[in-house]
Amino acid sequence: MSELWQFALVGLAGGGAYALVALGIVAVYRGSGILNFSQGAIGMAASYVFWDLYKEGDGSLPVVPAVVIGVLVGTALGVAFYLLVVRFLHSSSEMAKVVATLGFMLLLQSAAVKIYGTQPHLLKPLFGDGKVTVFGAFMTYDTLAILLITIALGIGLTLLFRRTRLGMRATALWENPQAAAAIGVSPLPTGITTWALGGAMAAFGGILLIPITGLTPSTLTLLVIPAMAAALVGRFTGIWPTIGVGLALGVAESLMRKYEINSGVISSVPFAVIIVVVVLGGTALPGRGEVLLRRLPRVSAGRVKPVSLVVAAVVGLVIAGSSPTWGSAMINTTVFGLLALSVLVVTGYAGQISVACAALAGFGSFVAARASSDLHLPFLLCLLAGTLAAVLLGLLIGGPAVRVRGVNLAIITLGLSLAVENLILLQPSMTGGSDGMVVESPTLLGLDLNPSAYPSRYAVVCVVVLAIAAVAVLNVRRGESGRRYLAVRANERGAASVGVSVAGAKLGAFATSAALAGLAGALSAFRFTIADFTGYGVFNSITTLAFTVVGGVGFVAGAVFAAVTSQGGLFANFVSNVLDLTTIDAWLAIFSGLFVMDMMIRMPDGVILHMSSLKDRTGRLLASALPVGARARRDRPDTARAESGRAEPAAAEPDASKPAEAPVTLPHVSGVEPGSTVLAARDVRVTYGGIVAVKDVSLELAAGKVVGVVGPNGAGKTTLLDALTGFAPSALGAIELRGRDVGRLKAHARARLGMGRTFQNLELFDDLSVRENILTGLDGRGRAAYLRDLVRPRRGTLNEAARAAVVLLDLERDLDTVVADLPQGRRRMVAIARLVAQQPAVVLLDEPAAGLNGAERRTAGELFRALADQLGAAVLLVEHNIDVVAATCDHVIVLHNGEVLSSGPPAEVLREQAVRDAYLGRLTPAEQVPEPERH
Ligand SMILES: Nc1ncnc2c1ncn2[C@@H]1O[C@H](COP(=O)(O)OP(=O)(O)OP(=O)(O)O)[C@@H](O)[C@H]1O
């Protein structure tokens, strides 16, 4: 027992350092809304300065002034990064913010390697060898100091955010930046202060940790991962939960050390526990209002341009074959290119910030090498084995993405990559350690491809593989799976409402991405006679993500750009061998970090989009100088659209824009008898904590009838819709759709069975075109699409119902317009067209006429009626506008405080005194409830 206690006390030192770094992350997040992945790197840089000055008494300064200067350096780094980078990112995407901090991390890390090298430095305890006794066990002065400082900073930060004007301003800015800006709160003072504090805490944590972990550029930089995990449990704002988890992590690691548990396990298990906690606390779909409208990186239309492809492949082959050095650089480039494509699929298309590609590649490499060295499988089968193994691991790493999103997912994937690295890739018993594993020389059709002997031959194979992968990734973009990914990336709730399995799409993206990474790793396994797996650390994942985002994370050309400029790639070979600048490598790494930050400020959509718009502008300039005939030939209408990443028109389909010869009608939903009960709900109840939002509501919806639901704000109308459609996880009660119990089905499964809905805030896919928004509701739902689209993408066509809706709602001209560019009234029409296209048997409309003008409201009212009369659907209409309700509905239900106050024909119900009191009380006696136009 006392021994356990002793180990627990020892663990408090490391845990305190985790907590200190994590507290810095919390301070910075609360002050500027940014999760600083460079927190550990700031601590590392400051620690090197301290170590340089102190060097265990050999330097020029005693410990205290050296610590003070180290902490000041950390403070200055934090403030400088805020002033030069962060403050320009306030309206940037989450991804740009993450990548900018990763860029700073790369900059500090490569600068430290350049200046100090990678050899570890050790220090004796900073506060001497003294100890205090705590319940029979010893605690060193260092540990005591770390603990006291952590607790003092915890109290200080709590007071800062609760009691000071600056802290309250920080909270205001964090909770509602627009409102805070409107009352004149400037983000600058809070930003500077919190980044200064963050930098100081990172420095403190780093310096105090040197005697425990030693000092290397990577150890302290990677401290950010457990620190992020601790801050994640405290949701990046809770100071004391963060401290508690940080300390617990350190203690757990120390206790495992007592039982001599494998070091890989020690560094992975506590973290794994945190991941489980966070994943269990996550949700399958974001809640109402949780989806923030944010700018997403642009994505290409996915057109394969055969000429560009052939030119690129020929250039690649020529370079690959030109000399062994270029061949080698080409192998590096293509391997990086595959990794970048893997990032493109999961992060660019599906919007999941995953920092795991190197771990997946490492695993693919490991399995391919084992297949060669143990099973002596032929080269191609080894590649296949590596690829498939990575897919399995990818599904495992992607698992949390089903319930965790955004930067939280970035942290979790980082942690899982670290676990893969520690548990598999760095385990000598499995991989042969630094000795590596002997692989057989690769051959193809009898041709020896041994990269050491024939780098050009192997490079040619790699170029062909990359070209095929690039075409497959472009195909995915044009297919059903691509639309699913983009729908999920844009709006998970909207995607589920049209029947897309959000979890399925995320896992599909993770699997495809893992296949590409695994293939990259498998190709690398044969790079030399001995495969080693030490080069697949999290820094490689970070660099790949950062470079791909800089190139353009939505564009295959962006991935190629990232590959060409990567370490050891074609550009680096050009600089070191053609320009003969052999010492450039370290500088290139430093410039890369600077470049990444600069790009996130100036061109967050990537270099490629910028180059393409430059090309566009030059083209237009040239065109204006050309004779008229030549100009007409040049100005093909689809050029700008394809290059700007806008959607291209789908394959041949009847032209919806032609004037209709007969009045357009919506085609009848098949298999639904007019007047039959389509949806029956009994005793539906939804609670949110202590609030009962819907109290035992029962209702029936019949085909061809419109039921209106009215009630004051907060009556529970939307919650009732959420419960019926599967968006309220806490809902109880029985819900039957066409006689089938759907109460336990997820939202997307109910949508597939014919339950269509709109949302108050529309939940459209803002960065997709109107046509693509509608197509997402029409696409097939099979899993086969994830494989089939790689080869034969289904571009999709608008069905009869969609075409009719497009004409009825006057959307013909907007079909290829990106939805974000439409005014609100037109966006409402898109939401309705997307719904109609699915030909649902039940239609649930949540305030669909809100914000429409008088004429638009009348058209909308007619359309809601047509949904029942022509489409034959059972319609439930939540609406505040009594004119619309009276004119459209056959039956009205009045909700008040979650309960049915009254129900019946509109003319009767809307006249009831109790209803008027509850909801219509604002009407004067002179005002009459209009007579319904029909029953
Ligand atoms: N996610 C949630 N967490 C906690 N309470 C919630 C949540 N969603 C809704 N509520 C509460 O449930 C009650 C019903 O809200 P709901 O939005 O369904 O009403 P509503 O009739 O649709 O109102 P409105 O007309 O303003 O849209 C309200 O008291 C609301 O505050």
From TrEMBL:
Cite the record's Basic and acidic residues compositional bias ranges: 635-646
The membrane topology noted for this protein in its Swiss-Prot or TrEMBL record is: Multi-pass membrane protein
Determine if Zinc is one of this entry's keywords. Answer: no
Q: Where in the cell is it found?
A: Cell membrane
Which coarse location class applies to the principal site listed for this UniProt protein? membrane
The reply to whether Amino-acid biosynthesis figures as a keyword in the UniProt entry is no
Query: What are this entry's molecular-function GO terms?
Result: ATP binding; ATP hydrolysis activity; branched-chain amino acid transmembrane transporter activity
Name a Pfam family for this protein: BCA_ABC_TP_C
Residue spans crossing the bilayer: 6-27, 63-86, 98-117, 137-161, 192-212, 224-252, 264-287, 307-326, 338-363, 375-397, 409-427, 458-476, 545-564
What's any one GO cellular component for it?
A: plasma membrane
Q: Which InterPro entries match?
A: AAA+_ATPase (IPR003593), ABC_AA/LPS_Transport (IPR051120), ABC_transp_permease (IPR001851), ABC_transporter-like_ATP-bd (IPR003439), BCA_ABC_TP_C (IPR032823), LivM-like (IPR043428), P-loop_NTPase (IPR027417)
Location of region: Disordered:
629-662
Q: Which keywords are on file for this protein? A: ATP-binding, Cell membrane, Membrane, Nucleotide-binding, Transmembrane, Transmembrane helix, Transport
Q: Which residue range or ranges hold the ABC transporter domain?
A: 679-922
Coiled-coil-forming residues are none
List the CDD domains hit by this protein, alphabetically: ABC_Mj1267_LivG_branched, TM_PBP1_LivH_like, TM_PBP1_LivM_like
Instruction: List the protein's name.
Output: ATP-binding cassette domain-containing protein
Species source reads: Actinomadura physcomitrii
